[in-house]
Here is the input.
Amino acid sequence: RRYDRRIDTSVSFSDELSLGSVLLSPGEPRDSAMEPCDADFVLQAVCFHQGQSARVGHYTAAVRDAAQPERWWGISDAWWSELEQHPNQVEELVGGPRASLLFYARKGLA
Here is the structure.
């Protein structure tokens, strides 16, 4: 049986994500070239869905401003504008859009 209805449960997500505790070698994170790296990540973008199902509705994104990281931009296929709130606050709106994908970048590379 296929589930086509939207799950309208708000999810909480962090602005920063630390993966140090789940690494194979805790305390010694390494990148794909096996070079030492940071295990902390910063939220860069959120993809939101608004609608009754994945087949019906609209996707938008909230994207962090690279030059001014405290600013967020709302982007759709027809518009873009500065967001007045953090993506976490958008997620908390009753009946509002729900986060579908979270994009994080390694701290220092963001």
